[in-house]
Fold this protein.
Amino acid sequence: MLIGIISDTHTRPLPQDCIARLETTELILHAGDFADAETLAAIRAIGPPVKAVHGNVDDSDIRRTLPGELLVKAGAATFAILHDAGPRANRLARMRKHFPKANAVVFGHSHIPLHEHEDGFHVFNPGSPTDRRSQPVHTMGLATVGHGTIAFEIVELP
């Protein structure tokens, strides 16, 4: 199962390369900061189902529509999604304790792509496809769920 992962889109249109990759996935995970309902609608219009949480800049419509945290079963894996996973120190252990039923935690907020894992548990931040801030390029993520495995990829966008 191929899953597209994005976050921190902030009302900006997705790059065409990001849309093309998302169209090939079976599921899209979004870790918050759409900013408004129109951005959420545009991402849902790409095609695959969208599972998402709200972020710190999302308006009241988004906050009423989306939870702050979410567990998503995808194939043989369970993903936890939240916007802000907190400080870098001890993040992996903290997220494992907070989401004991998850195989992976997907988060955003920092706009900094990240993949850490230990003993089969992953934390993953796709960065942002639209707002790179201090990063050299825009990014998104892909996850491939197999039989008992999850492989993550950070994708650089032109």
About this structure: Residues 16-23 form the longest helix (8 residues).
